[in-house]
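DATA CLASS: polypeptide
GOAL: derive structure tokens

***
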Amino acid sequence: MQLPPKVTDRAFERLSEIGASAEGKALRVAVEGGGCSGFQYEIKLDAPAEDDLVLEGRGEKVVVDSVSLPFLADAVIDFSEEIIGARFVIENPNAASSCGCGTSFSM
């Protein structure tokens, strides 16, 4: 059985800081074909859809569509603040390899 992705407290905190739920938005994490390794993540603020898996915490929501869900089983959605910038990141155990940009991977 595949487990849904997990969202860290830090990621929910960041969504709260930017006021996502106040605008009726959630953080959408999707997987699309493309990128330099075969698949790429699309991470954006979006309105939840009917068939989304909704992960909730601290009054905020992260949503994953049903097509992307198998690619994100057991993944961790986090927020990282580094010298090069702050961004939402995905730690995905299903990815066989990933590229340096952190948004593209292969399975």
